[in-house]
Write a structure and sequence with these properties.
- It is a single chain.
- By secondary structure, the protein is an alpha/beta fold.
- The protein has a domain of about 90 residues: Udp-n-acetylmuramoylalanyl-d-glutamate--2,6- Diaminopimelate Ligase, Chain: A, domain 1 (3-Layer(aba) Sandwich).
- It is built from three helices and 35 strands.
- The strands form five sheets. It has a twelve-stranded mixed beta sheet, covered by helices on one side. The chain has a ten-stranded parallel beta sheet with strand order 7-9-11-13-16-21-24-27-30-33, with no helix packed on it.
- The longest helix is centred in the C-terminal third of the chain and has 25 residues.
- The chain is flat and about 75 Å long.
Length: about 350
């Protein structure tokens, strides 16, 4: 692919000392390893200095980026443009319509146009799949599941009974949608009695759930993940929770039951949220934050119990000084040291 073709494809302006539109690039790579026939990008100022020494054939950068010796493709959002460049060289796999002979599709199920049903897939009674659905090997849809158009379920994903999925939903390998919520009542004899989890899990349009994440069904009502939310590997969304639109739940985040997460929230890796809490729109929790109380919209919190990120950073800095402070205190109070 020529640089001119790539620039047009990603919506960038090609800038070079000489006409470079016909220069051919054959792939993408990181700025440290890219060669003369590969393109790379700079979006983080941390890597700006490397642009002067990179061996890459071209760089995707912001419009105001300093001039460098290699051609540049200038665009307002280099990271987004980079993702499109990757896709240009590594387009998604295409799956031919059809049903594998080992698949089991209930006679009462309804498949949309051009469905691809892979090996050992199970589609239960009353399921309804939208057009262009792709179910890869060993996917299981329990009875009554409904999906929108362009549903993509990778191998070993499972969607439990009665769950509803919108258009362009993606389930990565091993994602479990609608497993029973963790609900038990203690009986008079002291034993735990299971509470039936009757409510569905609902994923709205353009939700992606990555590998081995679990979205539990509700005991009553519903568990809902709203449009555009992205859920990383090994995330737990407890029963009856709501995840707002365009929210990111990063790896190993845990939401206890009836958590309500606003839109455009970012919960970084291993954040834990206690049940029945509200996390306001646009809030950010840094990695390993423990959240026992509501978080205001737009707040940035850290630590346990969660507090303002600036306060947390000051506390961490103070803790690092504690050994020196203890030594000074002991030397001032110990008569033998004088």
């Amino acid at each position: 692919m020529t640089l001119g073709e790539l620039a047009a494809r990603i919506g960038a302006e090609l800038v070079a000392g000489t006409d470079a539109s016909g220069v051919v690039v054959t792939g993408v790579a990181g700025i440290e390893t890219a060669g003369p026939q590969q393109i790379t990008f700079v979006a983080n100022p941390k890597y700006a200095a490397m642009a002067k020494t990179t061996s890459a054939g071209a760089l995707i950068v912001e419009p105001e980026f300093a001039e460098v010796s290699v051609p540049t493709l200038r665009v307002k959002n280099p990271y987004l443009a980079w993702s499109r460049a990757i896709e240009a060289f590594h387009p998604p796999l295409k799956y031919a319509p059809g049903i594998h002979p080992t698949a089991v599709v209930a006679p009462t199920a309804t498949l949309g146009e051009r469905a691809h049903i892979g090996a050992y897939v199970v589609v239960g009674d009353g399921c309804v799949l939208g057009d262009d659905a792709v179910l890869l090997p060993h996917v299981v849809l329990y009875p009554g599941v409904q999906t929108g158009a362009r549903f993509l379920a990778h191998a070993h994903a499972v969607v439990r009974e009665g769950c509803l999925l919108g258009d362009d939903v993606v389930l990565q390998n091993g994602a479990i949608i609608g497993a029973d919520g963790f609900g038990f009542a203690k009986g008079n004899d002291g034993r735990w009695v299971k509470i039936v989890q009757a409510g569905p899990a609902i994923l709205e349009d353009a939700v992606e759930v990555q590998a081995n994440a679990c979205i539990d069904r509700a005991s009553v009502g519903e568990t809902r993940v709203k449009i555009g939310a992205k859920i990383d590997n090994l995330v737990q969304v407890g029963h009856g929770s709501t995840v707002g639109e365009n929210t990111l739940l990063c790896a190993q985040v845990g939401l206890a039951g009836s958590s309500h997460i606003g839109k455009n929230v970012i919960l970084a890796g291993q954040v834990g949220v206690a049940g029945h809490l509200n996390i306001g729109d646009g809030a950010i929790a840094t990695a390993q934050t423990g959240i026992p109380n509501d978080v205001a919209p737009g707040a940035v919190v850290s630590g346990y119990p969660a507090m303002d990120n600036r306060d947390w950073l000051r506390m961490v800095a103070a803790v690092r000084r504690l050994p020196d402070l203890v030594r000074k205190l002991r030397s001032n109070t110990d008569p033998s040291s004088k």
